[in-house]
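Submission sheet (multi-component)
Chains listed below:
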Amino acid sequence: TIEHLFKEIFKAAKELIEEDQLNALLVSRQKKPNDTIVHIGDIEIGNGHQEHIFGPCSVESYEQVNEVAKSIKAQGLSLLRGGAFKPRTSPYDFQGLGIEGLKILKQVGDEHGLKVVSEIVNPNDIETAHEYVDVIQIGARNMHNFELLKEAGRASKPIFLKRGLAATINEFINAAEYIISQGNGQIVLCERGIRTYETATRNTLDITSVPILKKETHLPVFVDVTHSTGRRDLLLPAAKAALAIGADGIMAEVHPDPATALSDSQQQMDIPTFESFINELR
Amino acid sequence: TIEHLFKEIFKAAKELIEEDQLNALLVSRQKKPNDTIVHIGDIEIGNGHQEHIFGPCSVESYEQVNEVAKSIKAQGLSLLRGGAFKPRTSPYDFQGLGIEGLKILKQVGDEHGLKVVSEIVNPNDIETAHEYVDVIQIGARNMHNFELLKEAGRASKPIFLKRGLAATINEFINAAEYIISQGNGQIVLCERGIRTYETATRNTLDITSVPILKKETHLPVFVDVTHSTGRRDLLLPAAKAALAIGADGIMAEVHPDPATALSDSQQQMDIPTFESFINELR
Amino acid sequence: TIEHLFKEIFKAAKELIEEDQLNALLVSRQKKPNDTIVHIGDIEIGNGHQEHIFGPCSVESYEQVNEVAKSIKAQGLSLLRGGAFKPRTSPYDFQGLGIEGLKILKQVGDEHGLKVVSEIVNPNDIETAHEYVDVIQIGARNMHNFELLKEAGRASKPIFLKRGLAATINEFINAAEYIISQGNGQIVLCERGIRTYETATRNTLDITSVPILKKETHLPVFVDVTHSTGRRDLLLPAAKAALAIGADGIMAEVHPDPATALSDSQQQMDIPTFESFINELR
Amino acid sequence: TIEHLFKEIFKAAKELIEEDQLNALLVSRQKKPNDTIVHIGDIEIGNGHQEHIFGPCSVESYEQVNEVAKSIKAQGLSLLRGGAFKPRTSPYDFQGLGIEGLKILKQVGDEHGLKVVSEIVNPNDIETAHEYVDVIQIGARNMHNFELLKEAGRASKPIFLKRGLAATINEFINAAEYIISQGNGQIVLCERGIRTYETATRNTLDITSVPILKKETHLPVFVDVTHSTGRRDLLLPAAKAALAIGADGIMAEVHPDPATALSDSQQQMDIPTFESFINELR
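Outcome: structure written.
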C-alpha cells in the first residue's frame, strides 16, 4: 500500500539520519580518522603500545596501596588505580575513604612515580579531583549520569569512561560524546562486561565491543578483566583475548590480601598472582 | 540422601541470611509491616485507592502543558508530570527547558490545582526543585546515581524513584534504601520495564516486580506503561494488567500533539486517546 | 552518498518484505481477521470465555493424578495436564514415566470426564500420542525443534505451543506457522516467561506479549504462571494480570504434595492452595 | 561477625555440593583429568594443535561446495562444513537440500580428501548420516532437543555440539552429558554467541565460556565466529581472541558468492577474504 511505502521511506530516512548523526559525532572515526592518543604525563595511551592499569578496588590504607604500588613499579608499569568514592549497591556497604583516599593514592603515586586513576561520582568533586588524580574514572553505574559526564567534559584531566552495566555500544559512544562535546577529548573507553542471563561469570565480557569501538571511534579502548569476569581464574585468559582482539590495555584489581579486602574480595589478585599474570601477558 | 539434605539445609540457611539482610532495611516490610502512604498535599498514594500520573514527556511550552493539564483536571485527576531536565542518550538531543520548564510546570499546576512531578538529575538542583515541584522524580538512568539518591534522601518532598534500565529488584530496593537512610521515607517505586533481548517492545515490562516490591517493602508501587512498552497500542492493556496485579497507580505520557513532540513522539497519547484510556481503566 | 542511499532503500525494501511476510503467514490476523477457536471435544478455547489448564508437572502415579483431577472436576473445570516425557537439564534427573504416564493420564481423564494435555518431545511419538491425549503440548525447549513442529502440524489433535526460553515474539509466531503450514491450525500459544538477567523470578513474565500475539495472530493465547514466575506466591497475582490483559486462559501446576514432587517441587500449588487460587480468580 | 562467618560457610558448602554434582558428570575434568582428543579419521581435535572448520552455511550445489573445498584444501586444511538440513526461523525459508545435500558434501569431501561436518536435526536421520558425514553437528536450536542428543549419544561418529541461543554454560555441559551418557564421548563443544540486549552484533560472543568449558570438562572447545558476531568485519578479530583464550579451533562460513547465498548472506566470507583470514590467523 502507499501508506506502507511512505512509512518505509520515513523509516529508511530515519536510519540514514541516525547513521549520519553517529558519523557526525566528535568521537567518530569518520570525523577524525587517526587514533587519539591520551597523554597522562609522559605516558601515552593508544599509541600502539599497550599500557595497563592495576591497583586495589578500594583505597583502604597507605600501607595497602603502597604494597601494590611497589609491585607495579617493580614490573616496570606506570599506572595505579584505587577507589576512594565507591558506588555500592547497599548504602551500608563500605563507601570508600573519600578525599582521604585520594590523598593516600596521590602520596603513594608520587613516591613511586606512578600516575594515578580514581573514580569520581559527584559532579561537585571533579574540580577537587584535579589536585589528586591524573586520570578521572567514570564508573559503569554513572555512564548515564549525564551531569557528571558534562562536568568531566570540562575537566583538564583525561577521563577513563566505563561502559554501563547494560549499556549498548551506541549509548556508550554517546556517553563519550557528552564528555568531548564540552571540550575534553582525552578519553579512554573501557569495556567491563555487560549484564546477561549467564551467571557463571559476574558479567559477560563483550569482547567484540573492542574492535567495534575502535572502528567507530578514534579513542583508545581498555578491557577491565576484573569486573567483566568476577573470577580470578579468568583474569589471565580474558586479558589475552582482549589484547589479541586489539585492546590498548587492561585494567585489573590487585590487593595485598584479597581475602580481607573491604570490597570485591572474590576477584582481586594478590601480589604473586599479579606478578605471574604480568609475566604471562608478555 | 545425606548429600541432598545438606544441600537443602545450606540453601535454607543462605536464603535465611539474605532475607535477614533484606529484612533489616528501613524500606523492608519486615521492619514496618503497614503500608507507607505518600502524601502530596492532600493527595494520598498507597492508601488502597489508585492515583495516576499523566503529562507530557518534556515541558515544551506553557500552552502545551496547559492543554494537557486541562484534560487531566477534567478527568478528575490530581497529578501532572512534565520533564524539565531530560537525560537523553545523545548530548545533541533536546535536553529540556531546565528551571524555565519547572516554572511553567508549577504555574500550570497552580492554575489547575494539580500537584506536579518532575525529574531532577543533578544533586545540586534538589534544593531548588523544592520551590517548584511537589514530587521529585529520580529517573531510570539515575537509579544508580547514589549521590543524587542521598541528596533526595535529605529532601522534604516525596521521591518518585524509577527502576534502572537493567537493575535487579534487589538493587532497586537498595536504591530506595539510599534515600530512606538519609531520612526521607516518602518514596514511590516505579517499575518501568527492563532491558532484554526482545525488541517487539521498547523494554520488557516486568509485571511481577509489582507484587514482589509490595511484599518486600512497605512502599507504594507504580507502573510506567509508556516507557515499559514504548507502544501506544499497549498502554491500555499494560495499565489493566498493572492495576490487576496490585499497582497503586499508573504513569503515562500525554501530549497535545505527539507527532511534534520534542521527545518520545512515538509513544505519547494525544488528548482524545488519553480520555478514552481513562474511561477504559475505570 | 549514493551508495548509502541505495543501502537504505534496500534496507527499507527488506523490512517491507519482512512485514509482508508476517502478514502473509497463515497464523496472521491480516490473513484471517476473526479469532480461531480451538476445539477440545466440546470445550472451546478462544471463544471469549476463559478456560484454564491445571495438573501436576509430572505424572508420577495414578493416585497422584487422580487426586488432582478430582479437585479440578470439583471446581467445574475441564482440562487436566500432566507431563509424561520430561525434558530435563540433566540426563540423570527424572525423565518422566513415558507411555505409562500417558496411560495414567488418559485413564484419570476418562474417569473424571476431563480432557488431557501432555507434552510430546519426539516426532516419533506424535502418532502414538493421539491415542492418549486430547491436546499435544510442545514445550519451551522444543519451540525451535522444527521437526517436531512439522510433525505436530500433521497431527489431528490441537497443539499447545509454548514460547521458547529466549525466543522473540516473531520467532514464536513463526514456530506456530511451522505447525499450521502442515495443515493443523488448531493451535494455542502460551507465554511462559523469558530468560533475563533478573533472578527474583525463575523467568520474566513478558505480559505484553499477550496483546501483541492476539493482535498479530488469530490464535488463542494462554499464560503459564508456574514457569514464568517459579514462585508459588506470585501465581495468583500473575494470573490476575494475565486475565486482565486479555489472555484466554491460565496454565498452572498443581500437585497433592508439592514437597515430594519428582520435579518442580518449589513452584506447584497443593490442592487447598489451588482451590483458593480458583476462587480468587473468579 | 558471626553472621558473616556463617554466610561464608554456607556459601562454600553450597558451591561444594554443586561442584560435586558437576564433578560427577562423565564430561567433567574431575572425572577424567586429561584432555579428550576427538578423532576424525586421522585428524585430531583437542591435541594442542588448532584445527578449523570452514564451509558454506548451506550446501546449494556441487559447484558451490567444490569451489570452497578447493580453497580449504589449498590452505592445507582438512575439515569442510555445509548445511543440508537447515533449521530456519520461517517455514518458508530455504530448508536445505536434505539427503541430496549430504551426498554432495560427501562427494566433494571424498574428491578433495576433506572430512565433512553437517548438522542433523531429526533423531531419525542420525543413522543415515553415518553414511555421509564424518562429524554430526547438533545446532544451537537443538541443544535442548534431548531426544536428538540421546540419539547422537548412540552414534559412532563424533558430535559437534553448539551452545543453545540462550543456554547457560551449565546447561551446555549437561547437554554434552546427555550424549556421553549414551556412550559417545567424542564430542566437540562450540561457543556460538548468546542472546543479549546488544544489537551491534547478531549475538554476544561469550568469550570466557571457552576457558570455563575447558576447565570444567575434558572436551575440545571451538568458537563459531560467524554466528556469534554476524558481521564479516568481526570474524578475524573474534578468531584471534578465541585462539588467544585457548579455543581448539574456529568455525566460520565461506561461500563463493555470499551475496547470492540462500542463507546467511550477510556474514559469510568470500574466498579471497577467507584466504586472507587464514593468513592473518597464522
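Remark: Strands of chain C lie at 38-40, 43-45, 53-55, 79-81, 115-119, 135-138, 159-162, 187-191, 221-224, 249-253.
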